[in-house]
Amino acid sequence: MEMIAEPERFRRACDEARRSGTEVGFVPTMGDLHQGHARLIKAARDDGCLVALSVFVNPLQFDSAADLRAYPRGLERDRVVATSLGVDLLFAPSESAMYPRGRPGISVDPGLLGERLEGSSRPGHFRGVLTVVAKLLNLAGPCRAYFGEKDAQQLALVWRMADELNVPVQVMGCPTVREFDGLALSSRNARLSPQERRASVALFEALSEAATQVRQGERRGDVIRAGMARRIAAEPLAALDYVAVVDERTWEDVGQLDGPARALVAARFGATRLIDNARLPWSGGEDMHNGGMHGLPREGA
Ligand code: PAJ
Q1: Whose CA is nearest to atom 10 of ligand 1?
Q2: Atom of ligand 1 nearest to the CA of 151
């Protein structure tokens, strides 16, 4: 595995791979690699790509300095994990290499969807995400870029950015990897106390209950949302941030379920904020355990 810190060298390495006839599969991350990231890397390998992984904790997308400071960093461990997962290029730039003039004066406006849900709880978050993703995709060049459904709103926004700004990248969505009890893998999980860890399963249970309600014929968005909120409220260690049921194409709140939809939830467990989401079962569609993102190229598709 080749390790690269300079952006222009990363660009050249991706260009060279393409010149030799290999497709580049790019997996952007903030490091602290876990099985969720491994899933994206595997998808890129299975697609026959040269696998490029970036590790960069992007300050632009953190709304609090404390959260940025607390974000786990361990490049040496990530290097070992990336090597064992078969990554070909590891791009790990410094902050000054990515932002030599400090905060960029030009950034990507995520539009209205960027202000809802995660965007409303974390103002400026998606502007920071899309700006760094645009930079990373510009360096990687024409490629397949892999993102997790764990961050479904991020995936949808990256897909829209690529579509609306003609970024020569195929955005690939990969299913969420979960712990044995359903908790979605996340770098933040390590911050949970044992009690909070036990309580955190409430997120997956709220999503599972929403799916069960739909399977039993419930179509009213408000009723599904209320059921999810009740499940979170029943957990004393959880503080609900939001529950939502959105149309998977428009991301508008669903009044009456009549097509592919996604349930989303965000809650705090002590100082740790967790998010999760799942596609709701829909006739003709897949259920929440193997669902792909509607309107996005699916892995293997
Ligand atoms: P990070 O949180 O490191 O996640 C990197 C990628 O891994 C994202 O596409 C995310 O959705 C995916 N991922 C995380 N947990 C997952 C899980 N349990 N199952 C499947 N995929 C999972 O997301 C970011 O970094 C940043 O915002 C980034 C896109 C790199 C821009 O800075």
Answers
A1: 148
A2: 11
Residue nearest to atom 17 of ligand 1 (CA): 36
DSSP H/E element including 68: helix 65-70
* Report field, pTM of the whole predicted structure over 0.90: yes
Taking a C-beta distance cutoff of 8 angstroms, is the pair 51, 44 a contact? yes
Domains of the chain: 2-174 (3.40.50.620), 187-292 (3.30.1300.10)
**76-110: per-residue pLDDT in tens?**
999 999 999 999 999 999 999 999 999 999 999 99
DSSP per position, 80-110: HHHHHTT-SEEE---HHHH-TTSS-S-----
**27, 29, 147: which to mutate for ligand 1, most atoms within 8 A of CB?**
29
Rounding to the nearest 10 degrees, give the CA dihedral for residues 249, 252, 258, 263. 90
The residue to mutate among 137, 150, 188, 288, having the most atoms of ligand 1 within 8 angstroms of its beta carbon, is 150
Distance in angstroms (rounded) separating the CA atoms of residues 120 and 124: 9
Beta-strand relationship, 261-269 and 272-279: antiparallel
Which pLDDT tens digit goes with each residue over 225-237?
999 999 999 999 9
